[in-house]
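Much of the work behind modern protein science is quiet bookkeeping, done one molecule at a time. The protein below has been through that process, and both of its lines are reproduced in full.


***
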Amino acid sequence: MDTKHEQIVAHMIREVERGHIRSGHKLPSVRALAQMFSCSPNTVVRAYQTLERDDVIYPVPKSGYYLVEGRGPASERTETEPIDFASTTPRGDFLPFQEMEHCLRKAISLYKEELFGYTDPKGISSLRNELSRYFHAQQMFAKPDQIAVVTGAQQAFSILTRMPFPGEEGRAVLVEQPTYFGFLAAARVAGCPVIGIHRDEHGIDLEVLESYFCSGQIKLFYTVPRFLNPLGTSYSLEQKRRIADLARQYDVYIVEDDYLADLEEDSKVDPLYALDQSDHVIYVKSFSKTILPGIRMGAVLLPDRLLDPFIRHKNAADISSPILSQGALELYIKSGMYKRHAARIREHYREKMHYAIEVCARVFGSGIHYTCPSSGVFITIRLPQYVKASALQDRLLQRSISVTNVDQHLLPENQRNDRIRLCIIGVEKPRIEAGMIVIEEEIRRLERRMR
């Protein structure tokens, strides 16, 4: 790092701490700082990129850089400033509002005639063509006719738990424990019997999985191979291959929820769908966490024999997904904006997760067990004996820190009240460490009290 680069970073930090730059204020232009420090614009850009990686500033396309909310003078911040490890909603300054506004305006112009009617329940053909190309780049060779556009992944889960499967009469849904609570809710409302299989940071017992598959009682297996919510961990390639092979061997369908695929930093890591040789994997992709949650767009890649029943159930639910959201997503992907935004958030969350794991090692040491994901946004902490997650939640709320009880992700018979989940998606780096220090303090306080 050269001297000018260091000088610019230090100068901007001083300006923030002195209150000369306030939250939401625009920073000096690259050209102005280059003149001030007698350096090249590239040096200023690299300094701003350093501040952006440290969650001090954020860029607004075609506008400039701005100070992140809450990063004003130290005198304006207090120890009671809320730290939200429970929310899974990205920070507002990290969402592509202006880009999506442009795409929505363009979609209104392009699809103004379709606004007066209904579209194909599968989704508009131009979007499905674009999605087919997008998935091809990830080694998933689905034709446009095998893709169904859904109003968010949750709609896909609702349909899949309700619709008939070949020879499914009287069969149950198998889920990992823990798993995404939204799928559990969909199965519960649909009246599906649900069976759990234990999963930890090392994966699942494949012999136990085989015993369930060969029992004949499983309608489908719902799995989150990558960055499981709440553990944050992923299956190995060998585990995914074995799961796909068992599905073929015992004719069991798999629902693969790949909601954070865009955070995968290793381009050679294939989803289960790419390893499936027998058309037993149903792939569900959400765009909510990477674009805007309110857009409510997702895609499902279906085996040919399941496509018609899926579309019939979708047509009965909403006739067709919103045309403006579909058009905006098509334009966002086709223009290359989505690819650039995905690369940005992938790097951002990778660095943030690595930082969070370093903080865990420093604050918790070896006395408190926690998961160590390579990327993603979730970390699970297993509490010491006698410390209850619900009691810790209450204590932390009194100190303005929100966390999630992992029991929310478990079937009633598997709930132990012994783990909490931290989501780093909306917490800035300095606040991550501050929050974890308080969590460790409260765990130790409860531990002493309960002994």
User: Anything to note?
Assistant: The chain has three domains: 3-72, 97-338, 339-450. The radius of gyration is 24 Å. The longest strand covers residues 194-200.
